[in-house]
Amino acid sequence: MFISFEGIDGAGKSTQVKKLKKHLSEKGHQVLTLREPGGTVIAEKIRSLLLESKHDITPIGELLLFSASRAELVQNVISPALKQGNVVIVDRFYDSTTAYQGYGRGLDLEMLRAVNTVSTFGLEPDITFFLDISPEDALIRKFSEKSIPLSFEENELDRMESSGLAFYQRVREGYLQLAGSEKKRFMMLDACNDAENIHEEIVQKLALVCSGL
Ligand code: TYD
């Protein structure tokens, strides 16, 4: 079983990934959790290039770096783990590329579909949980959790987070479009709800989709 979590930064994905891992592990499943970009030595190096660098990266360069990181992770970690019968939960997968590089940066969606197929070797999540939140609410949440005042300095943000509110609005719109066009795979959740309620919804949905979970 391959499960992905999606949503804009600050939607609360990592909390839900942890809760779901605990739940499934307690039920006796072998669960591997990963986050993108990253997860192998090379993919972690690409992650620092993408997020820590203050240098500009072209949208195509950015797309290819995220995709290179994904290819490393799929071939070396995700596919072998799935073959061994593990449940794999990823914090972001190729829908992030569609939302951020496609809707956010404006790259051609058809071209992205082709690149996504290459970087994943055709692997698709069985189910995708999309935590929906407005960029304004996500920002407030992110900064209140870190106790950082909202009037932040730019250098407190990583390279992607410095892309601005309008960018995040386009990314959210992209996710909403995906949720509308991929109704079977996408499960949309209101990220403003209580984390425990969201977790319960996720557990119920999973039980419906896969009777063994
Ligand atoms: P991360 O710190 O992992 O953020 P989050 O906790 O929100 O997941 O940073 C990953 C950043 O990279 C995030 O801003 C989303 C972005 N991203 C893309 O733009 N395209 C992609 O394909 C992926 C996987 C991530």
Describe the structure.
The structure is a single chain. The protein has 213 residues and is an alpha/beta fold. It has a single domain, classed as Rossmann fold (3-Layer(aba) Sandwich), CATH 3.40.50.300. Helices cover 55% and strands 12% of the residues. It has 8 helices and 5 strands; from the N terminus they run E-H-E-H-H-E-H-H-E-H-H-E-H. It has helices spanning 13-26, 41-52, 59-83, 94-104, 109-120, 135-145, 165-181, 195-209; strands at residues 2-6, 31-35, 87-91, 127-132, 186-190. Strands 2-3-1-4-5 form a 5-stranded parallel beta sheet, with helices on both faces. Helix 2 (41-52) packs antiparallel against helix 3 and helix 4 (94-104) packs antiparallel against helix 5. The mean pLDDT is 93. The structure holds thymidine-5'-diphosphate. Thymidine-5'-diphosphate binds at residues 9, 35-37, 51, 66, 91-92, 96-97, 100-101, 160.
